[in-house]
Design goal:
This protein is an alpha+beta fold. Helices cover 20% and strands 22% of the residues. It has a domain of 53 residues.
Length: 79
């Protein structure tokens, strides 16, 4: 999972698309003013400084932007 924060060059989903990054699901976190992108691939190196890798259990985000079903799909995703 990656966190996009302080993106000033456009909507975070458009920025990810412009970088060629694909992801399974994007979850806005309005209280933190960030977006979470689950199961990303095609990551550029080096990553822009506004993209931070995060090791998080999607089950902990049930009710915080993810449903139980979405969290299970993210957890069980195989690239």
């Amino acid at each position: 999972m990656y966190s996009a924060q302080d993106v000033t060059s456009g909507h975070p989903m458009e920025v990810m698309k412009g970088l060629g990054i694909t992801y399974q699901k994007a979850t806005p976190q309005s209280m933190l003013d960030i977006w979470l992108f689950w199961n990303c691939s095609n990551l550029p190196e080096p990553l822009p400084e506004y993209l931070l890798p995060i090791d998080a259990d999607p089950m902990e985000y049930v009710g915080w932007g993810l449903s139980q079903q979405e969290a299970e799909r993210i957890r069980d995703y195989k690239q």
